[in-house]
Amino acid sequence: MLSQSVENFVKAVYSLQKSDEWVGTSRLANALGQRPASVTNMAQKLAKSEDGLLIYQAYKGVKLTETGTSVALEVIRHHRLIELYLSKQLGVPWDKVHDEAEKLEHVISEDLEDRMAAALEDPTIDPHGAPIPTKDGHVAPRPSVPLASVEPGHVVEVVEVNDHDAQLLRYLGELDLYPGNRFSVLGRESFGQSISIERDGKPTSLGEEAVPHIFVTVIGEIEKKKDPE
Amino acid sequence: MLSQSVENFVKAVYSLQKSDEWVGTSRLANALGQRPASVTNMAQKLAKSEDGLLIYQAYKGVKLTETGTSVALEVIRHHRLIELYLSKQLGVPWDKVHDEAEKLEHVISEDLEDRMAAALEDPTIDPHGAPIPTKDGHVAPRPSVPLASVEPGHVVEVVEVNDHDAQLLRYLGELDLYPGNRFSVLGRESFGQSISIERDGKPTSLGEEAVPHIFVTVIGEIEKKKDPE
DNA sequence: TAAATTGTTTAGCCAAGACTAAATATTGCA
DNA sequence: TGCAATATTTAGTCTTGGCTAAACAATTTA
To answer: What is the dihedral of CA A63, A64, A66, A70, to 10 degrees?
Structure first.
């Protein structure tokens, strides 16, 4: 049985390891809220273990093996299923589900996982728009681009938002910017990353704190319907 | 934040502490699946701590304070709510809910507890017939007697069964001996604690493993309905 | 290309929570 | 009442998983 620390470690490696680069100890330490020395320790321990979850090279960092990857995906599946279950079946607000899932993901049985998935009819995305890995470790890729990269004048649909920051989620919730919803990108503010948008007829300025955590697909150009002056 | 070890410790003390006697380290060790020395350690640590969960006297044992009692009741409320939730909302069989709840009870938030309770419409007993403590720490007493103490010739109703032994629960499930169900006590077997019973017209011998874990109320005398020979 | 900066590892420490073995207290019984 | 049996505590050890401070490697920059 893997400890919660190990599960969290592997999960962190997975989510930092875009492509198949090495993941450095500092980035991991940052993601885990720990000190780099602690990460080095754990990395060395896991690399030496028979579990074969990852490989470690001094001063390079860490890379998941096949085994490690599927462990990570299992934990992430737990996490996202739990988030969705809490949200849909128990009405937990979307800014709270992450923290709750963070604890529950390590203690539910496979059987319980299956039952939750069945109750939700084998869902594929979680409340923040992130894909739920399948039991056999497949992740459906969801095309999206950072909101910051969208040129003004386009209508976009929210694909996914970062689930880590509860305050951000409450803010987005107030603006009704849930995955699946659409809004128009009107323009960039003069300074910083802020963007002015229009959702449901209401124009707003989207704070620069929020922009980097929103991923969208471009639906099309803005159409000027009425007000043809 | 109390650790899981501490929560389990306090819970164990609570459930062994009928009346207000001291609870000895051996009994605790036995209940916790640990060695007596480990229990002494923990008892001394907790007694010295500022949390004030319990008092400890060398060679006597341990006794919960008010605070300790309400912590225990909180954990037990979690446990039993979770058991019932899993059973009713997710169809987890009653011999599995205990182990699952044992892990979940330490990680759910108060908010989640409230939501589960609401979804179940503020239930008062769990799948094994045990009372669910209220949020303010009240336990509705449920009058019952050990099945072993019932004289043959009576109809009884199952009030509560011990939830610790999954095998026992499967056995009782096969016999349909769920809390709320009734059966007749026909007689005692010549040796051991076995009892012959009749449930739903079907006579059975109830193994001596099972008898001490069943608690009932006496409903009345057996009436010979048909077969008046 | 050498020095300064930055990032990583090593070494040693700590707390929690379990264990065993040995010492000590309590209890039960002759 | 005193000794044997039983229960409890003490003392010391181990593992896990974190930390800090100091040493060391790699990278950046003058």
So the answer is: -160
Give pLDDT tens digits for A53-64: 999 999 999 999
Domain co-membership, A60 together with A10: yes
Q: Find the nucleotide nearest B60 (Cα to C1′).
A: D8
Domain count, chain A: 3
* Both structure tokens of A4: 């919660």
Count Cα neighbours of A156 within 13 Å in the Cβ-side half-sphere: 30
In a shared domain, residues B163 and B194: yes
Give exposure, B88-115, as e/b (b: 16+ Cβ within 10 Å). ebbebebbbbbebbbbbbbbbeeebbeb
Q: Is residue B227 part of a domain?
A: no
> Across the strands, what pairs with A160?
A215
Q: Is residue B201 helix, strand or coil?
A: coil
Contact A112 B100 (CB under 8 A): yes
CATH classification of the domain holding B10: 1.10.10.10
Looking at the structure, tell me whether residues B85 and B127 fall in a common domain: yes
The domain in which residue A170 lies consists of 145-221
Chain-chain contact of A92 with B112 (C-beta, under 8 angstroms): yes
Using CA atoms, how far residue B151 sits from B184, B187, B222, in Å, is 10, 8, 11
- As given in the structure block, the two tokens for residue A129 are 């728009």
Residue with tokens 């030496």: A48
**Separation between Cα atoms, residue A71 and residue A177, nearest integer Å:** 32
State how far the Cα of B81 lies from the Cα of B122, in Å rounded to an integer. Answer: 9
Task: Provide mean pLDDT across the span B147-160.
Answer: 96
For A152, A211, B33, B174, the CA distances from B44, given in Å and listed in that order, are: 66, 53, 18, 45
Whether residue B22 is found in the same domain as residue B52:
yes
Q: Which residues of chain A have pLDDT under 50?
A: 229
Mean pLDDT value across chain A: 95
ipTM: 0.92
Asked if the Cβ–Cβ distance from A109 to B116 is below 8 Å, we say no
B229 falls within a domain: no
Residue B118 lies in a domain: yes
What token pair was written down for B176? 């349909």
Looking at beta carbons, which residues of chain B come within 8 Å of A90? 112, 115-116, 119
> Which residue out of B112, B113, B114 would a mutagenesis test of the A interface target, given it has the greatest number of A Cβ atoms within 10 Å?
B112
Q: Do residues A11 and A75 lie in contact, with contact meaning Cβ atoms separated by under 8 Å?
A: yes
